[in-house]
């Protein structure tokens, strides 16, 4: 393991890239803009996915699967959707290859041209609402609470592993309701699920808020979001939940018979999080030595490394390590004993620090004599000598403590980086020198929002849900404002 | 629930289609050849996927994720692969849409043409082996045991829900090994995993075999397969596992340093099963009343239906049903209490028969007085009166019994439908009148195989792995043969 990660202070973007690749989370692929999620990265995503899936099911949702392809004409059905949605899509125009008569492999068969082009889904509202038209007839069919785990494609020229790739994995919930308040409540409930997941599992404090009209999802009436802060002071949108009103129901003519036997259009939500969360997790907690993973999501929670001279010592340590492994496994802890003999213990220490394994147990011959082990925690890099008696319980406590400590550290950083600004010079200075969220008055117009973005590269991340009302003046226009909003430069 | 399924005797293909749609497993979509997997169908697939995933992990495999797109030129790298592999692929030629200047929605932006077309993966050997080139340097990197759960696309003109669709979901294992015997053993191990899954979970007896050269996967040295028999006497390939030799390693130049410090090409396997298994499950066990699902995979194992008159009875039954539900859930049984009041009990009975719920418990006021419930099993449609005392244990036994009974019924049918034939007239007669597998001598040539297919539409399903050697004469050519092979008409 050569620990050649660029330090964060030197180049944060390069640090992130080095880290993702050297820790084995992901790599670039032969296809521009698409990444390979390697086994370690996928194991992390699997843990996130499984917890989220459980939370979705606990709130009454079912999974389903809709086609990868969307007929091009569907995208034009909802006016705001097609206007606002990025048009950088992968377009399928042909359905057959044939052997090149010249012998140069295969070529596209020009005779196999599709009558209507198919778009590789960038999001699935249109194809799903087209199906819902057949599924929803009466109020008894509502609410319809469906989620899909899928890959989606949005063509990207400038990509960044996990954070922005042409193909990514995500889940998209698409629900249908009889009334507006029910759909609103669903959109807010799913935002709460995302926030809970981010904070409890990812150890990532988030601001719950609603987007300004300009930052809304194309086709939404309201877009709720959770916003997190990265160590370089930039914000990252970690999840969104949209109240879609009747827009898609009207575009696809989905009506239902009410209890009173009247035909009405259905109310909708959609909500999603993606493999971007892996990037957020890495950026929020890791350091110059490698990943720092919260124990609840770490694919491996504990690694045991033997330190030995000669076969006799090795045999003794092996026996003890197996005993400890069994004890930890029984306690539900994900543990690995790494007794590979082709690298030295110091190399292994560095390797597992790079991979962010929360706890390392080093076992040497002298430790065994004293019935102790040297235990190191990844987050603070503290070392302690722990008795081997009742070790599983101690390790379990330690893992809990690490989970909380990682959250606390991120929370402290976040709290220190929400800064109020009451004039534009201060606003700009905070963005340039300190970073983080800036809490400021805004006059509520898209013009001002755009102008601030042009001048500072900062966008309105959200209007926090728990915002206290406060009379004030817009930092740019000086016009009256009734609450502060959060600005930041963002990923 | 209108039980309008076409009977099997009348039209087996229509029965299957009716059943899939009316039981809510899947439906057609707006995209030709692509289906929507509805929540009930997806819940079934999820249970299959989770069991398989556990089995893959238990045999040392890890999941990863590779790009959806494959550069067109990759397909030509392995000669047999491109020659033999179906060229009915979805081809991405452009990466952007734009607003139609004429106002008719969106059009493909002709300026956004890809330099090299991308193929939506029909299978991932090429893109994965291109990545393995960077991952594998030394014998210490081997074996590499990776699986991917993904969607794939193979353009189909004539589709059938679950059995043949343009897009389907599957898993594809791709492993790399230092030696040929290790790779061979892996290919056989994964075949054993598939067979075990089919028989223990799907209650589907399968023949384990190896394909004739003509039926091999394009690029494989040997293709192992499991073959199942459907109720109409046609065979269905339920899974394949390929020993790929060094073909892909050579095509993508993947070499490793051996222990002896020599450079050698890596040995490979790939193996996969897909949502086709859902179709096989349905076809193998279901009847004219609806689905028959093996309890181990049924999304819902027990449904409780109340039969009441008036609120007073209802309250008593509700209380008892909640008690029973809690008891069953505690025993790990997936149970639902359906006390909806908009349809009659008889309608519910038919509905849950259609959905193949293995056990139905009807609870009436008189039952409660006598401390019994009327329990009906879906597979044999037998009814029995069971005491409410210790009901969970009785239901658990019943579910076990149903699982075994479904397997036994399918096995009996399968055993009755493996028929030897020693001359071509008999061979043809069995295929036409009885169906099933025909065990016959074949001279080992592709010419004879093709001719038999032309004459009878039957293909060699496999050469069974446990085949006893037997001297004989080819049923078509009369040339000498040393073992029988299994022919059948197939899905
Ligand atoms: Zn309408
Ligand atoms: Zn080579």
From TrEMBL, chains A, B:
<dbReference type="InterPro" id="IPR002314">
    <property type="entry name" value="aa-tRNA-synt_IIb"/>
</dbReference>
<dbReference type="Pfam" id="PF09180">
    <property type="entry name" value="ProRS-C_1"/>
</dbReference>
<keyword id="KW-0547">Nucleotide-binding</keyword>
<comment type="subunit">
    <text>Homodimer.</text>
</comment>
<dbReference type="InterPro" id="IPR016061">
    <property type="entry name" value="Pro-tRNA_ligase_II_C"/>
</dbReference>
<dbReference type="InterPro" id="IPR006195">
    <property type="entry name" value="aa-tRNA-synth_II"/>
</dbReference>
<dbReference type="InterPro" id="IPR033721">
    <property type="entry name" value="ProRS_core_arch_euk"/>
</dbReference>
<dbReference type="InterPro" id="IPR004499">
    <property type="entry name" value="Pro-tRNA-ligase_IIa_arc-type"/>
</dbReference>
<keyword id="KW-0648">Protein biosynthesis</keyword>
<dbReference type="InterPro" id="IPR004154">
    <property type="entry name" value="Anticodon-bd"/>
</dbReference>
<keyword id="KW-0030">Aminoacyl-tRNA synthetase</keyword>
<dbReference type="Pfam" id="PF03129">
    <property type="entry name" value="HGTP_anticodon"/>
</dbReference>
<keyword id="KW-0963">Cytoplasm</keyword>
<dbReference type="InterPro" id="IPR017449">
    <property type="entry name" value="Pro-tRNA_synth_II"/>
</dbReference>
<protein>
    <recommendedName>
        <fullName>Proline--tRNA ligase</fullName>
        <ecNumber>6.1.1.15</ecNumber>
    </recommendedName>
</protein>
<dbReference type="InterPro" id="IPR036621">
    <property type="entry name" value="Anticodon-bd_dom_sf"/>
</dbReference>
<feature type="domain" description="Aminoacyl-transfer RNA synthetases class-II family profile">
    <location>
        <begin position="30"/>
        <end position="294"/>
    </location>
</feature>
<keyword id="KW-0067">ATP-binding</keyword>
<keyword id="KW-0436">Ligase</keyword>
<dbReference type="GO" id="GO:0016874">
    <property type="term" value="F:ligase activity"/>
</dbReference>
<comment type="similarity">
    <text>Belongs to the class-II aminoacyl-tRNA synthetase family. ProS type 3 subfamily.</text>
</comment>
<comment type="function">
    <text>Catalyzes the attachment of proline to tRNA(Pro) in a two-step reaction: proline is first activated by ATP to form Pro-AMP and then transferred to the acceptor end of tRNA(Pro).</text>
</comment>
<dbReference type="InterPro" id="IPR045864">
    <property type="entry name" value="aa-tRNA-synth_II/BPL/LPL"/>
</dbReference>
<dbReference type="Pfam" id="PF00587">
    <property type="entry name" value="tRNA-synt_2b"/>
</dbReference>
């Amino acid at each position: 393991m050569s620990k050649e990660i660029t330090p964060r202070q030197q180049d944060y973007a390069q640090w992130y890239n080095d880290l993702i690749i050297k820790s084995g989370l992901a790599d670039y692929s032969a296809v521009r803009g698409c990444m390979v999620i390697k086994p370690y990265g996928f194991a992390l995503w699997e843990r996130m996915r499984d917890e989220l899936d459980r939370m979705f099911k606990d709130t009454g949702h079912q999974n389903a699967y809709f086609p990868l392809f969307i007929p091009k004409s569907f995208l034009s059905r909802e006016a705001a959707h097609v206007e606002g949605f990025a048009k950088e899509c992968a377009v399928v125009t042909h359905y057959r290859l044939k052997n090149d008569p010249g012998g140069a492999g295969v070529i596209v068969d020009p005779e196999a041209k599709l009558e209507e082009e198919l778009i590789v889904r960038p999001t699935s509202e249109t194809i799903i609402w087209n199906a819902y038209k057949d599924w929803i007839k009466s109020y008894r069919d509502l609410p319809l609470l469906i989620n899909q785990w899928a890959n989606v494609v949005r063509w990207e020229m400038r990509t960044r592993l996990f954070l922005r790739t042409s193909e990514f994995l995500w889940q998209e919930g698409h629900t249908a309701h009889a009334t507006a308040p029910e759909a609103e409540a669903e959109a807010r409930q799913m935002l709460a699920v995302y926030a809970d997941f981010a904070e409890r599992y990812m150890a990532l404090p988030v601001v719950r808020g609603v987007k300004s009209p300009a930052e809304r999802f194309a086709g939404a009436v309201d877009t709720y979001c959770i916003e997190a802060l990265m160590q370089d002071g930039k914000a990252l949108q970690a999840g969104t939940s949209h109240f879609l009103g009747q827009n898609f129901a009207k575009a696809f003519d989905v009506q239902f018979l009410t209890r009173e036997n009247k035909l009405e259009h259905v109310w909708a939500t959609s909500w999603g999080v993606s493999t971007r969360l892996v990037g957020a997790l890495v950026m929020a907690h890791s350091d110059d030595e490698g990943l720092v993973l919260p124990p609840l999501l770490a694919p491996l929670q504990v690694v045991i490394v033997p330190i030995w001279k000669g076969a006799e010592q090795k045999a003794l340590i092996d026996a003890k390590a197996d005993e400890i492994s069994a004890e930890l496994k029984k306690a539900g802890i994900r543990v690995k004993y790494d007794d590979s003999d082709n690298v030295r213990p110091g190399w292994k220490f560095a390797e597992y620090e790079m991979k962010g394994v929360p706890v390392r147990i080093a076992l040497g011959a002298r430790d065994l004599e004293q019935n102790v082990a040297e235990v190191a925690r990844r987050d603070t890099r503290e070392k302690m000598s722990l008795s081997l008696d009742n070790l599983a319980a101690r390790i379990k406590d330690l893992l809990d403590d690490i989970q909380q400590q990682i959250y606390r550290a991120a929370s402290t950083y976040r709290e220190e980086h929400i800064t109020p600004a009451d004039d534009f010079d201060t606003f700009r200075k905070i963005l340039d020198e300190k970073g983080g969220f800036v809490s400021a008055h805004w006059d509520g117009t898209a013009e001002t929002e755009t102008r601030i973005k042009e001048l500072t590269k900062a966008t309105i991340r959200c209007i926090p849900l728990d915002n206290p009302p406060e009379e004030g003046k817009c930092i740019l226009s000086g016009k009256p404002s009734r609450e502060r909003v959060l600005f930041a430069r963002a990923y």
